[in-house]
Fold these 4 entries.
Entry 1:
Amino acid sequence: MTKIIDKPKLSTPGKIDLARLALANDLPGLSKLVAAIPGDPAKAGTTKFYAVRFLEWFADQNGPARFSVFMETGNSKLPFYAFSSLPGFDCPGAGACLYGEGNKHNSANFGKGWCYSFTAWRYPAAFFRQLQNSLLLRSQGGRAVIADKFQQIPAGKTVRLYVDGDFPNQEILKYWMDLCKTRPDLSLYGYSKSWELFLALDRTGYAWPENYKLNLSGGSRYAGQLWIERMEKLPITRGQFLAVPVDRKFIKARSYQDKTRPMSNEYRAEVRQAMRAAGIQKGFACPGNCGNCLPNGKHACDSLNAPIAIGIHN
């Protein structure tokens, strides 16, 4: 008998189970799980609606992608083209952000960290887009689909690689860097904790693209001054992007989302204080909205020559 899932929105653990089945290419198991999600599959915007659409594509992945591969100009917080895949599953360098501070890096602690990407799973379309993209990256045909969509991005645009997720292996890292070279008219940047993949590719003598900037994301399992110094020698590295502890009231008020949010000034002052406590005397506190973090439409993560930090609750 098929077990019925009580919550129609499908909890984070339920989405993790669904992702594991899809990545294992378990169509029977995935079909049962989707069938157990209550709701009307014809009702747009619901988890059931998107899950059924995803399952139809999954059963025959030769068909067109059901979800946009790139978010076109994103939203007011992400005013550029953006690519995402599954957080955690595609993050081989993740440490405390995924598993929690001091926890072992194993399946039992998966998702117990402070990774913000899982909050996007409140929106079922975002989750299934990430899952679709993770699957596309895992096949030659899927990567051809992504490359085709990449070539369709209008000239002169800014592209953020991996709003969620990360470079899962050296092959995919090289795939993206090679794609960057095909579009010198684009400005690309992103964040990564998969530092060993970059260093391994660099050791092959790889020539990095000139139009990609890398932010060294905090929470990496490779954290440490020696790792940072090695990564900062790469010609593509902009600098560090850290997560520092702040008072929970700022998280509750969502002060980290935009300069217009309540207590934004106080929040950013506490971020700077936390950076100084960590030994970083000159740094930039991310206000949250990439559309207005710097004047003239610039954003710090692809142009500022200083460490950048956001706040997480203690």
Entry 2:
Amino acid sequence: MFSRSSQPWIALMAVLLFPLPSDAQTVATTRCGTGVHESEARGAVLFPQDQIFCALLADPKEPRSFVSYLRGEFRTLDDPAGKGTNIGSVGLGDSFGLVRWGGSRPGEGVQLDLVGSIFAQFDLGTPSNDLINADYIVGLPVTLRRSGFSARVTFYHQSSHLGDEYLLRGEEIERENLSFESIAVVLSQEIRALRLYAGGERLFRREPEALATQLMHAGIELRTRRSGPRAFVAAVDLKATEQHDWSPATSARAGIEFARSGAAGHPARLVALMLEVYEGPSPYGQFFQDNISYVGFGLHVGL
């Protein structure tokens, strides 16, 4: 039926379409789900599939995918106080590994990634759920892990835009042509169920000039030992900038994290349902000079 010369190509297609089961294991998996496939544990790996730095649970600007319902105090045109506003907050974020250089032990090393994310907020009190603000971020993080210590240095660009429906509400709304580049550094130490981190940012080539150039960042996280696929997680994230005389923005989240075993030896996929509380300077680009507060809950994936 098939010629002898076509048999190697048929075999290759069979391997691609019907791969054999793998007994490979993940090595050095941390409590937050990062880890390295054993076939990629040493040496230089091009386009690695895994991560070596744990995502920050309570940071509103952490690249991740989520959907949240929030109720609180947001400035709006109809009510300058913005009290009792219902907001739908959505994020789409992903990270693509470019190259990893393995460390002295499996699961350690240095990795370069490409990340992109969109954060958008919708006014649920309007008939068309008006888009209020959207932040677009693209960055190149360099991450490092050695045992329980990890670090991340990220060069990123952010631009922010008001939604068309929101702009049409009235001439009183002023749009900022907001964009900047930044270098962000986070140092992290895991101590059993706890994780502590601290760092900061330095903005440059910013618009408008009113944007402050310095930001301090710190936080603490708790992940309990898993009971089956479940674990309790809680985190507090603090940010302070000279923009607001170093008054901190506090973001707190707590809830249940679910893990699904990773395929072919890769780390587990994580999904968390969390309560969310925020108070302080707004993390939403077009409203960087405002103070907001809210409570809510959200579904977060890819933590």
Entry 3:
Amino acid sequence: MLLVRKLAFAPFLLASTLTAFADESGVSAKAEAVFHIGPVPVTNSILTTWLVSIALVVAVRLIIGGRPTLVPSRGQAVVEVLLENIRGIVEPIVGKTAAPTALPFLLCLFIFILVQNWTGLLPGVGSLGWRLPDAAGHSIFKPFIRPGSADMNGTVALALISMVVWLYVILKFVGFKAVLYELFGNKADRREIPAPIYYFLFLVFFAVGIVEVISICIRPVSLSFRLFGNIFGGENLLHGTNFFFLFYFLELLIGIVQALVFTLLVSVYIGLICNHGDNHEDHGAPDLEYTEGKAATP
């Protein structure tokens, strides 16, 4: 029984030992170059991102065991249960119309961010590296591997890719004209309010649309800073406390929450435009209930 307890806490003891080699000031906010491909530096966070991507592809292939079959194997069943659970959360948000296109990206986004967040909890990540003297002669620690989510460049890239997918999905299933109407159009019913107020509302909705455009431009900033701040702060906390087991389990929870928050926010952005009802045959035009001067057909 004593041997089992020692083995159970072995990862934490190893992590604490490896952390002793890290810089006492904590995790650097800047990713360090490990090597160069020509003039392009490959940082430790980029290296971690490549390793995580390769590991995910290999792991899924090994778990499924080749091609998916109609009668799933145990590994395929585990993967399908995971995907179905995430789908059950995301599909009602984005809507059934846009779900077939948006779901593959959202599923990959959640799993990729989750694994990236958890890489900082592995022994040696952020702790193993080399020391180099700076211009003042001080020793600077540079880790070999660094979680991609703890690098601002990585979270900004994820946010920008997410916004590109968001734009593609809404233009595909709603259309450019309907998106403009959704942002700037007058949603009031002309028959229910006086004409002067109705035409004045054009200015009101146009002003609201400008505010909405500004908020859309801010979305990549909020997405990237939220993920980076939580994971980078957690990394510093773990290194500052020598991977204390209580904070270790707390970071496990934070890794799941932040991956889910990022994915759900992207889903909400898509659903705000696309999920106005899935019963209309023409998804390239505004919904009838929003069409100017027309009543919704029964």
Entry 4:
Amino acid sequence: MNTAELVKRFLAQALKGDLKTAEYPREWNGYKMKVSFGMGAPARVPWIAFTTPEITVSNGYFPVFLYYKELGVLVLSFGLSETNEFETAWPVDVTSNYETIRSLLGKELPRYGDSYVYKSYKVTNDTTPSLTDFATGKVINDPELDSDLDTILNKYQQVTSYEAYNPASTVSQGVFYLEKQLEDFIIQNWQNTDLGRKYDLIVEEGVLVSQQYRTDIGPMDILVKDKETGSYVVIELKKNQTSDDTIGQIARYMGWVEKELKDPGVKGIIIAQGYDKKLEYALKRVNGVEVYVYEIDFRLKEWKSE
């Protein structure tokens, strides 16, 4: 079953009011897939959602087809759970560059108005459902629909980096398990990073002291110096912790440097897998802190003997 077959089958069943989902796949291109037409009664907005194993439709963020039956509109969305707020969500490049479903449709919607629109389609039902672009009226062919879903799933993979966080996966075993080894990787490759071009690691009596820099309130992940100003820069990795914890932690260490190392010009850098709204809002009230986002790039190259 390809994307077009899945979507057209879903649309046709939604209009019939049939709530059965047992015959739909439970996985799609490595992601969990869940279909819902309603519980006990037909839903006003049936959906098809795609999630990583640690995320659910009631607690997380995920690509989702949402069918607004009364409006005859299908939206491929950067979806957000309406039940529970997950710790992280779609990054700022999504929330800033894509409009919400409520903004697109301009109506009091029954559900999911705060999710973001990736693509939207007008649904025409003659003998079988067909799709046209919501804005232009252009007919959407099967390869285009396949491409739309593949693109948003690829974006989701970049955001969640599920494979890199799963210690059982071949990707994490073949590269490095980020939460435990990202700090070492940054230090070992310092001169090849954007950070290394702007900041110097600290060496005392021939010993590198930047990593896990000791203080009486706990060790900092990394402490470096600005090449131009000579001021200290506290670097904290947002690992398995909340945005609020990370902000509090880096503010505490910056305060320590300002007092104990006599540096009122101290800055902070947070290194995170994604830039979520909690970080965005917190940084509006915390001066002198930047965010760097890391990306995973896993390549295979054939080995050939000389």
